[in-house]
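Lab notes, practical 5.
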Amino acid sequence: MEKKKFAFDKRNFILLAIGMAVVIIGFLLMVGPGSNMDRFEPDIFSARRIRVAPLVCLAGFLFMIYAVLRKPKDRK
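Output from the prediction step:
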C-alpha cells in the first residue's frame, strides 16, 4: 500500500499551533477597560495596548506564515 504524502508534516502543525498561541496572547494583551461618555480610561493609550500587543500579534502571524511555507523533510 502506498503511503499518502501531505503538504504538512507534524512539525508544521506544531509550529502553526505555537503561532496561533502567540496571536491569542497578543489579543489578550489588548484587553482592558474601555472608555465611555461618563468616564475616561487613560489605560486605552498604554504602551502594552498600543505597541506591545500589536507587535506580539504580528510576530505570531509571521510565525504562522513561516509554518505554512516551511517545506517538510522527505522521509524514506
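Observations recorded by the TA: The mean pLDDT is 90. The helical segments are 10-30, 47-69.
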